[in-house]
Amino acid sequence: AERALIALSESLRGLEEEVLRAAASSSDEPLPAHLWSAIKLSMPSAFRDRGVCIDLTSGPVRDLMQSRAVANPELLSGVAVDVRNALRHMPPERQALDAPGFALATGGEDELEALLSNVSEALLIASVGDVFAASWLDRLGPERSVRVARSWLRVAGESGRSGHADAAWQLALVAARAGLAEQAVGLARIDGQREARRPEREVMLAYLANDPASLEALSRNVLAPGKKTAGKSAQQAMALLLLGKIAEGRCKLPRVQTQEVLKLADAGRAGRGNAALRAQFLLYKGQIALLEGDITQSAAALKTACSLARASGNGRVLCSGLERSSAVALEQRKFRLAIAAAEECRALAAAMGLRQFEALAYERLIECRMRRADWGKAYELAETYLRRCGEGVAEPSRAQAMLRALERA
Predict the structure, then answer these.
(1) Would the CA dihedral through 26, 29, 30, 33 be positive or negative?
(2) For a FRET experiment, which of 167, 200, 342, 375 has its CA 20 to 30 Å from that of 226?
């Protein structure tokens, strides 16, 4: 039973019974159906049905299995191998959802890098959503993720590979989402529908260049409802990219046009069926609401974004949502909530190597302690932040600015 429970604790949305029976067995033969039924009946509150899949509920069983997986990496690796073998009999789109996570569990970053470097596998994972695929690139860290994107660029650019050339746009979206500007531009230029997709490519290039004037013009002319593009899904993906720049304050539109972009992005793959994309959309929506001064709507959108990011395993979006949730809670003078969100963001960002979010979390925590006049804790955090800056988290001047602010307070 432990092997099947560990498999469930590592899955995103649960696993099919035949996969679980294969994982539960320590031999080449799957666990007999009657024994699996007995396991389910012995712990009815630990399981929940998700269509054809079975998942663990949140609670002590899930927490225990995750702890067991961390404490016994050899056991986790063996379970992951069995799950991957069983998933090979599933439809490709089903494999894509859990392939990255179990590749990581099988052989660490080396195995995940090998999986993502395979263009066919990468396209399947990207079909779940570009935000989803980019989150796995993030798990590899900067050096490995650049290596993966370069392999896409090399394969897509080979002569006679029209199928990969046509798919280059999808990989370009993933690379852009992961912040790999050079590789994203290269893939966009290889795109097999270059002329038909010219407007979307122009938006992407403006997005990567952080060119506010171009983004504002293109948002009006390219993403207006009814505007002809290479396809509805491409238009919706571009709307989501634009929302990111609006949320960052780099693209300023009248409120009516911002709402039009929100509607267009919400109607697309950022919709109900994809937790990772939905989380990204709600993160942008929450930040835009914060910029517009609607604190209540911002808090609600960010809370849901964090829940969906956890469910989809998207660490980057979760860190961003937690940092923004901390900022909103601070505005509401809900200091405990603000500190809890920032602490979770700091720990997760440090574990995943997301330095920009770790830095933001430290700054948010110091601000929270200053607002509560907890000067001792604020100084302690600022000194730890300065040390982490020395280890490459951010420029030391940022921590020094926090220390100067404390001295002036």
Answers:
(1) negative
(2) 167
